[in-house]
Amino acid sequence: AVIVVGHQTSGKSALIEALMGFQFNQVGGGTKTRRPVALRMQYNPTCTTPLCFITLENGKEEQRSLTDIQAYIELENKRLERDPTRSFDPREIN
User: Fold this and answer.
1) What is the three-class DSSP state of 30?
2) pLDDT over threshold 70, residue 30
3) Which of 2, 3, 76, 87 has the most other CB atoms within 10 Å of its CB?
4) What is the pLDDT of residue 79?
5) Helical (H) or strand (E) element with 88
6) What integer best gives the mean pLDDT of the chain?
7) Is the dihedral of CA 62, 60, 40, 35 positive or negative?
């Protein structure tokens, strides 16, 4: 298990993405990760692209494309960015 802890906008997501070899989150100036993101990775030498699953609000796990996962994370980040009372959410995206 790898847990990354650091100050806001210190590059935690970028570090994880560099280790994984693909981008799952927005990059650029400012705060981009507004909810904790839990990723479970399993090496499979026969895969050429990541096989991704997301746990939905109802607790059900569904397979989604990496593009769908990225879009979900981006949507959540933008939603929280616009919220004047709650710019972060402690619930995990996993």
Assistant:
1) coil
2) no
3) 76
4) 81
5) none
6) 78
7) positive
